[in-house]
Amino acid sequence: MRSLPRRSATVAVVATAAALGLAACGGSSTSSTSSSGKPVRGGTLHIVAASGPDHIDTVPAYYTADYMLEHAYTRQLLQYPTVAYTGTSGAGWKKTTTPAADMATEVPSTSNGGITNGGKTYTFHIKKGVMWDSSPARQVTAADFIREFKTFANPVSPVGNPGYYESTIAGLKTYDQAETKYFASKSHKPTASNIANFQNSHNISGLSAPDPSTLKITLAQPASDFLYMMAMPFASARPVEYDKYVPNSLQLDKNTLSDGPYKITSYVPNKSITLDRNPAWKAATDPMRKAYVNSIVVTEGVSSAATQLADMQAGTQDLPMDTPINPPSIPSLLSQHAPNFHVWGWSTTFPYITLNLHSPDAGGAMKKLGVRQAIEYGVDKIAAAKVYGGTEVAKPLNTVIPPGNTGFVNSVMYANNNNTGNTAKCKSLLSSAGYPHGVTLTYMYPNDSVNTDEFTAIQASLKKCGVNLKGKPEPGSSFFTDLGNGPASSKSGAWDLGQPGWIPDWFGNNGRTVIQALFQGPNCVVNTVNYGCYNNATVNSLINKAESATSLSAAGTFWHQADQQIMKDAAIVPLVDQNFPLYASKRVHEAGSTSAVFAPNIGDADPTNVWLSK
Predict the structure, then answer these.
(1) 600: closest CA among 89, 106, 75?
(2) Which CATH architecture has domain 352-577?
(3) What is the pTM for the complete model shown?
């Protein structure tokens, strides 16, 4: 996820945990199973953010801040329960990362008749009583889900990751290509009416609604991980009212309908978002969201991690959204055994350096393999890890796929002096590539304090070998939008290196959530997460082989081979694999924990399941 999401995100992990006795890969700094008393209803949950969500519309939204808020006003057929866990291999972890029924009456399976046709047809039944907060309120239908899929290739702001669905749902890629071709014509303007007219007059062969409460999805070939895709926020329902608005427009944002427990009642871009209870929501239909609080208020514009932590400690804010907990404060929190602070196990490529293979700057330096490989050798990953608290928790990473995911094999392609950087090799490659006196490149990064410190560490390590980085800080709300604007990445002055992070979109059977999402080509489009516009025929072929493999072990072999090819091409520089530190104000509680519970597939806390002390 990136942008989360999935997803990329703007998270960071903690300080000197090992010195204080915290397990590097484990659960939390205090017991995650302690009771916090009986839940109470009411109150306003205050969330503090540097930039907040970059999208309200569920189609382009692909960022942890998006996911955190979307969980309050959108629902999917399947979703992940928020469950406290003590490690990434126990029963709690498995439950919180396994899709369960949300709007669907049950999870489709071969035993209940929901998966048929040799694993190629999935049938979902929608619960009665799941309502839009329209006037009057009305039932969510199968047609609302089909409308969402039809919006994936809209010409204004397409879906954050089309690859998962286009490679599985029959006819979706053909439909998307037809819409893209249609709006490529200058005579077809991307107005709301034109977009809606195209989508309402064309069909996707693999999607049908036999009746209003039944959605049938036919796949091009069996996909053992398809249920995970259906639990992503991309697979939300989309009301017919959205036909009146251009996707991802301010008009749509200000007229968002909700089928979740909360609805957006105030939206002031770059300042605040307020959600209040949705009167059309029925608790009996929603096993995922308890909706204890009356309101949720997001305050944007607080970019300092230290200020955010101070606000939460003072009780004026309750949860963070898009900024890591202030790393210098972590040792004190750990030594105090603060019950409202936990370090949750996770598995990420976070952050990493993406390299713009289409940049024309500096004589097209980033198009040259030797320059990219010089950067691979030159980066001091130990210095990068120190920004987030040290190597015991932010562990140096040298592969595309992080540990604990399908296809991971521990290896080091670029000998870098035990992750401290190989300055001599960097200089040599840079000179051979035509830059004996060094090169100056533009480095784009989120402008919060921790990501700024990370940039500074990277800048210092590469300067030693002649790679001079010119910083280009951006708010988190625009960083991923600009980084993922593939067509603009080839323009002079855009960016050469970027500092995103990646969280697998799901855990378990998840090989495609790293390799396909980030590296399948060509996919150099608006809202891409293939930020550098990487396209390699060998990798594309390996992706296809992995997705059609008949066993998880066979798929893992292909994913690993793709990982090695991507590293050989120096498409990205992996930096660290992090766990997740979560701090909340003392008045925040959640079942199974003394504070808020981290939701791995959201990539943050779940605001719909916490309650507040009176």
Answers:
(1) 89
(2) Roll (3.10)
(3) 0.83
